[in-house]
Amino acid sequence: MRRALVAANWKMHGNRVFVKELVSGIMPALSGGVNGVDIVICPPFPYLQMVDALISGGEVVLGAQDISTHECGAYTGEVSGSMLADFRVRYVIVGHSERRTIMAESDQVVVAKFEAAQRDSLVPVLCVGETLDERDQDMAEQVVSRQLAAIVDKCGVSVFNRAVVAYEPVWAIGTGRSASVQQAQDMHAAIRRLIALHDDEVAQSLQVIYGGSVSPENAPELFAQPDIDGGLIGGASLNADLFVRICKSVS
Ligand code: 13P
Fold first, then answer.
1. 173 lines ligand 1 (CB under 6 A)
2. Ligand 1 atom at minimum distance from 235 CA
3. Beta bridge partners of 124
4. pTM for the whole thing?
5. Which ligand 1 atom sits nearest the alpha carbon of residue 178?
6. Fewer CB atoms inside 10 A, N or C side of the chain?
């Protein structure tokens, strides 16, 4: 039986006052954990230490939104996996569509970040998903297959024993237009099938979470699908009440 995972991706939002209020709002409800659910908060880098202090002693764990492909050295502005681990970061988002498009990160860069995360014992949360154009052309599965194959071809399928996959259709991110429950379930099943082509056991134990306009209203039905193991939450994770309700809606 797979555990569920709900992760907050704050993206580039917040300041110290906001972060303190938000985490203080979340922790009374979540610090003791929610049965069967891994809960992760991914703040911007400058707030990692602050969030770490605010969540310490509880069940909620820390994630980061990005990682350098390099271990250390002259890479101005970069943050390495060992630095993240030093702040008790456990998960790191790689391949988010905002980085793939705005920062022009290629599949190869995403693979290197995935490897960098695992090198420092962090769990990569690999984001995959198609644009609206690609969906309209019936290419959703093909795109996700290419994004997964980039990892499998370079690293082998067993690396997915220590990873999470987040299906995030680009057209559903921050738009208020979530994928339908059926669309999401179909893609999650496809992702599991693609991994199962290489190793069924890895596929069956892999946490595949959904991201894209998740709300307390649509979360219960999405999370009840057989292949949807939780969510990667953007906008709604910036509101303590909404995020808590989403975490608790895992059945
Ligand atoms: P929204 O929940 O705001 O659509 O963002 C999803 C996302 O990109 C999480 O990584």
1. yes
2. 3
3. 92
4. 0.98
5. 4
6. N
Average pLDDT, stretch 5-24? 98
CATH number at residue 197: 3.20.20.70
Number of domains into which the chain is organized: 1
Range of the domain at 63: 4-248
Give the Cβ contact number of residue 24 at 10 Å.
11
Contacts from 198-203 at CB under 8 Å and sequence distance 24+? 198/152, 198/157, 199/157, 199/158, 202/157, 202/158, 202/160, 202/161, 203/160
Long-range contacts of 174-179, Cβ-Cβ distance < 8 Å, separation of 24 or more: 174/213, 174/234, 174/235, 175/212, 175/213, 176/213, 177/213, 178/212, 178/213, 178/214, 178/215, 178/218, 178/222, 179/210, 179/212
Residue 178 DSSP code:
P
Tens digits of per-residue pLDDT, 185-223? 999 999 999 999 999 999 999 999 999 999 999 999 999
Asked whether the beta carbons of 164 and 91 are under 8 A apart, the reply is yes
- Determine the length of the chain: 251
pLDDT tens column, 118-129: 999 999 999 999
Query: Which residues are identified as catalytic?
Result: 96, 168
